[in-house]
User: Which sequence fits this backbone?
């Protein structure tokens, strides 16, 4: 019996007769006991609850029980587990009951704690995803850092569950949309380039704000771009929005864009490449065009972001989350004028960066002259 | 246009095909001579006995052969048969190479290069050159003659190449190879669509360096009127006629009496001619020949007789190309006319109503509608190409209704009725427009709007609006309230909107200037075009209120001046100057002057501008360090401010200053040479009459004076804003033009257009549809439709201009109103003052800008903003067409240049060099000394 169990036994069963008074005395006198009891309350149980709730939310179990109480059968069916796994599922659910998140009555499980009920709501999906993200990325970053340093391992793109990231980034959706609303002209014709379009939701948002907008949406992952193209077709935007698989660094495009947007992806580029990437974005802007870049930033005191940042420190790609002043500097370095960062809500780590491309270099050759190519004109 | 020119000296020095070098070596002589004998049957001297059949001569060769045999005056020629071509392929080892290339679908350009790079084998070269020798080694025209060439296709503009003015052995062999290789020209390949290329013959014909050339149709090709021979004639070579770049005279001859029943002589500034040996290009017509008809009555009769002879021999109607050299007539080609005249092309041309709108209209509307093309924006005035017209349709369908709404008109009606089209001219439906404008308080009485369109063709006393007056009652009340609110709002926002429009214009210009459309995909071009059309919409809708309000204030001002000031107020409204520098268009002259000064300050730059051929000035400047510095410092800012100007800007085919800066360089030459000072150009306005205009006002009681002064300032403000925002409007058209021409370039590459000139025969809706969809170009732009539009346009170009204003319908075939005799012309005095000076007719602004002497009286058909720099140095301005508020009138007032517009016949009655008196107060022009 380890020390913790013993301590629990002491706490929980104080009324029960002791078989060995000496043992009890030893235990109580153990100087580590108070610490253990404290940790149990402040650390262990919350960890269990967080893990359980994240898994229950991510697997859809919470959502299931939110509609009606579920018996083991229907939950197993929902999860698609085999008959032989029932026992294991029950074991897991019972811990949930034990943690106070669930309740079991007449063979049916139902939500019990206020937290579980809240997380089960559709509207709070983004929060649930954030919890999941915390456990799946933040915890491994903290836990594995020393081992990775020793072993030389690094996180890769495969360690990131795109679905979870997409869901959790919905938390900042409102902020991004606010930034788009602020930067986008509503009536003049606009040509937009979205770098890293993901599902294409933000392009759609912009296209709805300005009915004359046409856009090119680009994503570096082929399957993501493909899905975005399907989404555009479904949203009836296929004629206005072209979707391409491509990398900003190698796009061969004329400087035709009035606005280039990069939402929550600057940290996928290594820090020392960012100024160059931004300069590249600028080269696709029309003179006087605008870059809108949104990102969460370090240095705001938000612990979660610092940990996410740690994950990127240990990743094989990208780099740390930007600091506001550092990114402003990179924007300047990339040749942007009138560079500024705006926070959408006070105290938030989320920033909208804008910069304008007002550089007017020498113009190109004269436009090809028409008509008079074959017949020369004599002059007097 | 497909003409290529080869210089004798150039090619002999550089290409050295080796074909002519073997003559000196005795060892080669024998086999070569034997070879020549062996292949002689593959060269046919046309009109002489030869074994070659029509298929071996190709379409063109076979027809010429027949004509010569018939004893018609055709310049001597020989034909290299398809057999010789095939022999060339075999002997040079190309047969297998080409078969392989076709098998792997090599691009036509690659095949052409292979052929052009190959030497003509010695024996063949000897054969060709022997025939050339027999012809007498003259200058020749070398034309391809394909067996399956479309018989309706004109040789001037055929699918296959023609090389003009060739002389010398090496040049001839090169020209022959060019024709052979043209079997793989992109457009020929497009026609074949994957079938094997077959073979091609080549006609080598003595070149006629024509004084006059043209075409004759033995039947009215579109109008279809019986007994009519239709002749079109131009100065110089016929190539100029086909490209549409030179003006031509038009004659109709009765085939029974050989009387000339119709004649339209145009002022001919340019012609197509050999400039130097082997170089064909555009040059000026001698001043004395410009006014004169190309053909005398005798020459016309001789030409008609020959044509009837040809028709009689073939028994079918003919399309004949001819040339005159030193009074001798030559036939260059004669073809049966396969397309019959279509009655609808002439029949529908009586009413401007869109056909689908005309159907439901009662007779009163059909015959009682007042139409005008005066004052509907000079950007529309004049004949438009099919492309220009279809773009005007786009404007009508997508923009015009919103423009009307922007004027505070609550019910904008059916936009399909607002505008009409007649003989390639755009008309505004004055009746319908004034009916709708009845909703606006100042024009409740329609006469306020309609009065301006009075002309001698239209008697307003008998005119009654077929649409009636806008109904009273609730609708009227709502409309009046709506108008009041909209107008009040307009007064508040007008300045701010103008500022926004200026910023947006510069943004769009800078953006477009950095785009290389040639590197954009179809989808990207689609996005560009959509964007530009949106911008086009906004720029027009934004501009319209300034335009109409300037009209409105001017009208009220005129009326109050007449009522309160009586005789003293005559023309007061025209004497009022706004601050010169505030007018954007006037500033363009000022800015050219500044650029000219900057050029003068750099001797090297001025030297290039003065000495280089106009066409090359820009390139030479940019290749020179000084020139490039000048370009960046002076030309770029100038082009940014003014470059999207051009003439008749709604016509998409017209180049803008930025596309072809020739005119700017002409004006720089002009301004730099004459040693003007800025004050000569700019200060003229301050000199006269400003003072007494103000004096007159002082006599008025204070409230009336304040009213008039208030109106003056509102008129000035609206004029200024109109000028400023006009640049946005025309820049938006330039942007659209750029995309259309990029599509045109691609169509030329694909072989669907013969040259960029043919962009004029596209339909704008097709261009839009093509970019928006995924259909292949061939399906969207079938060649037959392009040809059809070309024919219609050429036909319209022959017709006399339809009237500026008329009621009901207009019959274009009706006899033309005879030109008035006498030395006195009455028009509208649009800018006060009286001046006597030498007249100069200017038909082509770009070509004639350097001829114009400071102080001369400018006489022309109509002007627009692009003429401003010339106004700045003119002594007076006289136009055939124009109104008090046409742009040119406003600008002449600003420059204080006496001006009379709407004289109708000035360009026909007055000749260059006549001494004329222009009275801008009474609107009279008199030839003082002819």
Assistant:
């Amino acid at each position: 019996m380890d020390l913790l169990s013993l301590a629990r036994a002491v706490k929980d069963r104080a009324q029960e007769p002791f078989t060995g008074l000496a043992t009890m005395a030893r235990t109580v006198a153990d100087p580590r006991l108070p610490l253990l009891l404290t940790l149990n309350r402040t650390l262990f149980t919350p960890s269990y609850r967080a893990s359980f709730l994240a898994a229950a939310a991510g697997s859809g179990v919470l959502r299931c029980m939110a509609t009606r109480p579920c018996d083991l059968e229907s939950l197993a069916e929902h999860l698609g587990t085999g008959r032989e796994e029932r026992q294991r599922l029950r074991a897991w659910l019972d811990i949930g009951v034990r943690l106070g998140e669930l309740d079991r009555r007449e063979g049916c499980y139902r939500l019990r704690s206020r937290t579980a009920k809240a997380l089960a709501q559709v509207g709070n999906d983004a929060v649930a995803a954030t919890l999941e993200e915390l456990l799946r990325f933040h915890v491994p970053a903290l836990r594995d850092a020393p081992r990775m340093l020793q072993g030389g391992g690094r996180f890769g793109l495969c360690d990131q569950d795109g679905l979870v990231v997409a869901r959790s980034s919905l938390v900042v959706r409102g902020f991004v949309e606010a930034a788009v609303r602020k930067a986008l002209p509503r009536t003049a014709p606009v040509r937009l380039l979205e770098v890293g379009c993901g599902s294409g939701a933000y392009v759609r948002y912009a296209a709805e704000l300005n009915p004359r907008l046409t856009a090119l949406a680009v994503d570096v992952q082929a399957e993501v771009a493909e899905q975005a193209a399907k989404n555009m077709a479904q949203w009836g935007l296929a004629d206005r929005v072209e979707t391409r698989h491509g990398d900003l660094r190698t796009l061969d495009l004329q400087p035709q864009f009035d606005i280039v947007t990069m939402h929550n992806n600057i940290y996928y580029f290594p820090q020392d490449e960012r100024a160059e990437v931004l300069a590249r974005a600028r080269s696709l802007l029309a003179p006087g065009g605008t870059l809108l870049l949104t990102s969460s930033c370090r240095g705001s005191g938000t612990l979660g972001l610092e940990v996410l940042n740690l994950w990127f420190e240990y990743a094989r790609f990208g780099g740390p989350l930007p600091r506001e002043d550092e990114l402003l500097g990179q924007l300047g370095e990339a040749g942007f004028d009138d560079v500024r960062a705006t926070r959408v809500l006070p105290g938030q780590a989320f920033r909208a960066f804008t910069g304008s491309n007002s550089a007017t270099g020498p113009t190109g050759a004269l436009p090809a002259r028409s008509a008079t190519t074959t017949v020369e004109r004599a002059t007097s | 246009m497909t003409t290529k020119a080869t210089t004798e000296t150039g090619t002999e020095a550089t290409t050295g095909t080796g074909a002519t070098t073997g003559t000196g070596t005795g060892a080669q002589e024998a086999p070569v001579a034997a070879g020549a004998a062996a292949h002689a049957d593959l060269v046919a001297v046309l009109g002489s006995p030869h074994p070659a059949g029509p298929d071996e001569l190709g379409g063109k060769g076979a027809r010429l052969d027949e004509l010569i045999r018939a004893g018609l005056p055709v310049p001597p020629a020989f034909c290299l048969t398809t057999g010789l071509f095939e022999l060339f392929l075999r002997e040079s080892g190309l047969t297998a190479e080409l078969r392989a290339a076709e098998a792997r679908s090599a691009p036509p350009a690659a095949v052409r290069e292979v052929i052009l790079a190959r030497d003509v084998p010695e024996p063949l070269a000897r054969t060709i050159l022997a025939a050339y020798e027999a012809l007498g080694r003259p200058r020749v025209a070398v034309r391809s003659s394909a067996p399956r060439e479309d018989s309706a296709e004109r040789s001037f503009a055929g699918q296959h190449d023609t090389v003009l003015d060739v002389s010398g052995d090496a040049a001839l062999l090169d020209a022959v190879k060019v024709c052979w290789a043209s079997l793989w020209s992109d457009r020929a390949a497009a026609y074949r669509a994957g079938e094997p290329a077959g073979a091609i013959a080549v006609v080598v014909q003595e070149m006629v360096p024509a004084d006059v050339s043209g075409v004759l149709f033995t039947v009215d090709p579109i109008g279809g009127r019986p007994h009519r021979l239709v002749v079109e004639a131009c100065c110089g070579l016929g190539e100029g006629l086909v490209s549409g770049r030179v003006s031509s005279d038009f004659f109709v001859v009765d085939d029974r009496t050989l009387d000339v029943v119709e004649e339209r002589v145009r002022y001919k500034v340019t012609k197509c001619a050999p400039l130097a040996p082997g170089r064909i290009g555009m040059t000026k017509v001698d001043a004395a020949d410009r006014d004169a008809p190309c053909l005398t009555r005798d020459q016309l009769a001789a030409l008609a007789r020959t044509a009837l002879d040809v028709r009689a021999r073939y028994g079918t109607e003919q399309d004949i190309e001819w040339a005159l050299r030193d009074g001798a007539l030559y036939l260059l080609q004669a073809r049966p006319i396969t397309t019959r005249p279509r009655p609808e092309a002439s029949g529908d041309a009586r009413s401007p109503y869109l056909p689908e709108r005309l159907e439901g209209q009662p007779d009163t509307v059909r015959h009682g509608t007042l139409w005008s093309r005066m004052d509907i924006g000079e950007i529309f005035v004049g004949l438009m190409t099919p492309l220009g017209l279809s773009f005007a349709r786009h404007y009508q369908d997508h923009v015009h209704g919103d423009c009307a709404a922007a004027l505070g008109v609550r019910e904008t009606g059916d936009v399909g009725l607002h505008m009409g089209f007649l003989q390639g001219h755009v008309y505004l439906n004055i009746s319908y427009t004034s009916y709708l404008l009845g909703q606006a308080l100042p024009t409740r009485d329609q006469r306020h709007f309609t009065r301006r369109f009075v002309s001698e063709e239209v008697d307003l006393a008998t005119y009654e609006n077929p649409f009636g007056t806008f109904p009273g009652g609730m609708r009227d009340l709502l409309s009046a309230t709506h108008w009041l609110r909209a107008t009040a709002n307009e007064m508040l926002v007008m300045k701010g909107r103008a500022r926004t429009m200026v910023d947006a214009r510069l943004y769009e210009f800078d953006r477009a200037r950095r785009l290389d459309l040639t590197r954009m995909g179809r989808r990207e071009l689609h996005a560009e075009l959509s964007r530009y059309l949106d911008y086009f919409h906004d720029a027009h809708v934004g501009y319209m209120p300034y335009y109409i309000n300037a009209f409105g204030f001017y009208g009220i001002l005129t009326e109050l001046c007449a009522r309160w000031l009586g005789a003293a107020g005559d023309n007061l409204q025209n004497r009022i100057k706004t601050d010169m520098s505030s007018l954007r268009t006037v500033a363009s002259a000022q800015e050219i002057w500044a650029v000219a000064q900057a050029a003068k300050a750099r001797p090297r730059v001025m030297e290039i501008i003065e000495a280089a051929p106009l066409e090359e000035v820009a390139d030479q400047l940019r290749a020179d360090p000084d020139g490039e510095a000048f370009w960046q410092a002076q030309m770029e800012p100038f082009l940014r401010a003014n470059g999207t100007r051009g003439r008749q800007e709604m016509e998409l085919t017209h180049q803008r200053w930025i596309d072809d800066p020739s005119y700017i360089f002409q004006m720089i030459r002009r301004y730099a040479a004459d040693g003007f000072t800025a004050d000569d150009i700019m200060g003229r306005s301050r000199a006269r009459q400003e003072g007494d205009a103000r004096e007159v006002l002082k006599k008025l009681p204070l409230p009336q004076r304040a009213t008039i002064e208030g109106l003056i300032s509102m008129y000035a403000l609206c004029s200024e804003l109109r000028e400023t925002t006009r640049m946005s409007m025309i820049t938006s058209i330039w942007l659209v033009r750029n995309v259309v021409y990029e599509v045109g370039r691609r169509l030329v590459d694909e072989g669907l257009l013969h040259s960029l000139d043919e962009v004029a025969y596209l339909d704008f809706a097709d261009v839009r549809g093509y970019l928006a969809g995924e259909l292949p170009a061939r399906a969207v732009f079938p060649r037959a439709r392009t040809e059809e539009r070309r024919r219609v346009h050429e036909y319209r170009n022959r017709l006399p201009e339809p009237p500026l204003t008329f009621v009901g319908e207009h019959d274009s075939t009706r006899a033309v109103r005879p030109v008035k005799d006498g030395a006195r012309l009455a028009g509208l005095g649009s800018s006060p003052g009286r001046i006597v000076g030498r007249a100069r007719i200017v038909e082509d602004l770009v070509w004639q800008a350097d001829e114009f002497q400071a102080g001369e009286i400018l006489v022309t058909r109509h002007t627009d903003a692009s003429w401003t720099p010339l106004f700045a140095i003119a002594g007076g301005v006289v136009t055939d067409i124009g109104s008090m508020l046409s742009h040119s009138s406003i600008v002449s007032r600003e420059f204080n240049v006496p001006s009379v517009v709407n004289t109708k016949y000035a360009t026909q009655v007055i000749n260059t060099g006549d001494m004329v008196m222009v009275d801008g107060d009474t609107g009279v022009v008199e030839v003082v000394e002819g």
Observations:
- The two ends of chain A are 111 Å apart (CA to CA).
- The first helix of chain A runs from residue 3 to 12.
